[in-house]
Design brief:
single chain, Thiol Ester Dehydrase, Chain A, 2 domains, 9-stranded mixed beta sheet, alpha+beta, kinase activity, 6-stranded antiparallel beta sheet, 599 residues
Length: 599
């Protein structure tokens, strides 16, 4: 204590004589900006490591026994601090500056050990800020060790929702011999003749660290600017177990026939998510499965919570679906509005939200409202004739939808009671042009009506007759900054960029145009094995291409090429896609497309 008094007496005259009594940390408030950095130094003691081991239950001897850590763990200096204990400094640092912050995500890479007793430098840097009522911030998180702070121990990224972007300044103040010292760890004094490397200033900072309670560190600004936030398309809907039954001979009512029955991972949303994933675009899927055989089967691909759903499909000998009995009540019951709202952060930062109609009407509306508030385009997949009508209360939020002929009519009728739109299937015709003209004549009233109700793009799937693309006017449907954040399949994107002609035969109407336009894209001839995943692969291809930055017409051509790969596969989603084949098929489809109507 006497030694401390002597050291203090030696410091105070210097402060009184040379200090101007100003601090760079004194502004009452700072606003967080991209590139700003929070830093804090910390040392973990024996007691803290032992306490964490007791609370967490992680009593691995490499954290508690020096000899074991050296001999078995290979840590030359003995015990190491728990990795998660070190990582806990990141949320603590953020919350210290922004009380009420909600930690949403954290990725971690443990690059080097932190030994018990080591001093570490924790650094949190704002890399992307989405300012809104609640501010979504992506942080780069790093922890350095060694005396020179040059050894990276922990690296990663975090996402947090902040109630405010104003930095909370907690400037503790203490008087030493009549001189005011402000409390942040890295004091920046303006001192005549003193530099940051001077011995007296280092001694003063040391006194401050011992005298003052712990406080948040100073905000450092990085002049390098923003790093874009990586985001993923969000897929919400059914993840179900399909039971496929295919007879080996013509089925007869009232009796059994020999055939093959197999389990297949299914569900519209699940299929689309798998397709997108295999195109190397990372989706974020929200669904439910059960803790049972079906759930175990499905969780080979994804993990979630809830109850499973089962679907039994019956096919004819050619692979076409005869009938399907779907048990998807768990999707409606457990994918509730409150559950979906837990993923507000993912939805609001997504380049696109895809919803399948297995969701309840309330859940569909909740998801749409979150997307609408953040300007995220919504893709609605009607799933079936019975469920397509669920679009009625959310039509104004929908950017894209992909019904077949009968689903299109059901959707239009749901918005226009009493039912006035009809569809009569044409008898088989070898004349494709005549079939397409007939389909346009039958379906155009329903298409035009849905556009009037607010839907931006109708992608009407016509089976072997291709796809109608119907739109009213060219608008900015995807946030370009969001689409640039996506990582589309590099080989495929490169091939597609080279294969599409610069002066396409079809294009969208000019921005601001009031014309309604309909384009027809022909299907690509294929050796059909199974048709069950074609529609889902079409949607997956369109979404991947849109998120990769391709235009609407190019994306539809890609979707058709992906669907062709699907019908030639036994599985709902092919094991892999050929970039060269898809690029070639997409180019041929685009060159064959034609405008049916534009008035």
């Amino acid at each position: 204590m006497r030694a401390f008094a002597r050291n203090l007496a030696a410091i105070i005259p210097l402060a009184r004589c040379n200090a101007t009594a100003t601090t760079a940390a004194a502004p009452s408030s700072l606003v967080l900006k991209v590139g700003d950095t929070l830093r804090e130094r910390r040392r973990f003691t024996d007691g803290e490591v032992e306490a964490y081991a007791a609370v967490s239950g992680d009593r691995n001897p490499v954290h508690l026994d020096d000899a074991f850590a050296r001999q078995v763990g290979g840590f030359g200096r003995g015990r190491v601090v728990h990795g998660m204990l070190v990582a806990s400094l990141f949320p603590a640092l953020i919350a210290a500056h922004f009380p009420g912050a909600v930690y949403a995500r954290q990725s971690l890479k443990f690059a080097a050990p932190v030994y018990v007793g080591d001093k570490v430098l924790v650094q949190v840097q704002a890399q992307h800020i989405r300012a809104s009522t609640k501010h979504i911030v992506k942080f780069g998180t790093k922890c350095f060790t060694s005396d020179s702070d040059d050894l990276l121990a922990v690296d990663g990224e975090a996402m947090a929702v902040l109630p405010s972007l104003y930095l909370r300044q907690q400037l503790n103040q203490i008087l030493i011999g009549g001189f005011a010292i402000f409390g942040p760890l890295n004091l920046s004094f303006s001192m005549a003749g003193a530099t940051t490397t001077s011995s007296p200033l280092r001694r003063m900072e040391s006194v401050c660290r011992h005298l003052l309670p712990a406080s948040p560190p100073i905000l450092y600004q990085n002049p390098l600017g923003a790093i874009r936030l990586e985001s993923s398309p969000v897929i919400i809907g059914g993840m179900v177990l399909d039971i496929h039954a295919k007879p080996s001979m013509q089925p007869h009512p009232g009796t059994t026939v020999p055939g093959m029955v197999k389990y297949v991972s299914g569900g519209v949303a699940r299929n689309i998510a798998e397709c997108i994933c295999k195109l190397e675009t990372r989706p974020f899927m929200i669904s439910v499965v059960g803790n049972d055989m079906a759930g175990d089967f499905l969780l080979k691909y994804w993990r979630s919570a809830g109850l499973c759903t089962d679907v039994s499909n019956v096919f004819d000998g050619s692979g076409e679906l005869i009938a399907g009995v779907a048990s998807v009540g768990a999707v409606e019951n457990f994918l509730s509005p409150s559950w979906i709202c837990q993923f507000r952060l993912h939805i609001s930062t997504a380049p696109l939200l895809m919803l399948d109609a297995n969701l309840s009407p309330d859940s569909l509306e909740a998801a749409c409202k979150i997307a609408h508030e953040s300007g995220v385009p919504v893709f609605f997949e009607p799933v079936s004739l019975a469920k397509g009508s669920r679009i009625a209360p959310i039509a104004k939020y929908i950017t894209y939808t992909s019904p077949n002929e009968i689903e299109l009519v059901a959707m239009a009728n749901s918005l226009s009671p009493p039912e006035k739109y009809t569809f009569v299937k044409m008898e088989q015709s070898k004349n494709k042009a005549k079939a397409v003209e007939y389909l346009f004549e039958m379906l155009s009233p329903a298409m035009f009506f849905l556009l009037e109700k607010g839907i931006k793009f109708l992608l009407v799937t016509l089976g072997s007759n291709g796809v109608f693309v119907c739109c009213k006017e060219s608008t900015s449907l995807m946030d370009q900054r969001k689409s640039e954040m996506m990582s589309f399949s590099t080989p495929l994107l490169q091939k597609l960029e080279r294969c599409f002609p610069s002066n396409m035969l079809v294009d969208l109407p000019r921005e601001g145009s009031s014309r309604t336009c309909v384009f027809h894209f022909p299907a690509v001839s294929a050796s059909v094995v199974s048709l069950t995943g074609a529609g889902d692969c079409f949607v997956g291809g369109v979404i991947s291409a849109l998120c990769g930055g391709l235009g609407m017409m190019q994306s539809v051509a890609v979707g058709i090429a992906i669907a062709k790969s699907s019908v030639e596969s036994e599985a709902n989603i092919p094991d892999k896609f050929s970039a060269a084949t898809i690029a070639d098929d997409a180019r041929r489809t685009l060159l064959s497309a034609k405008m049916m109507w534009c008035k």
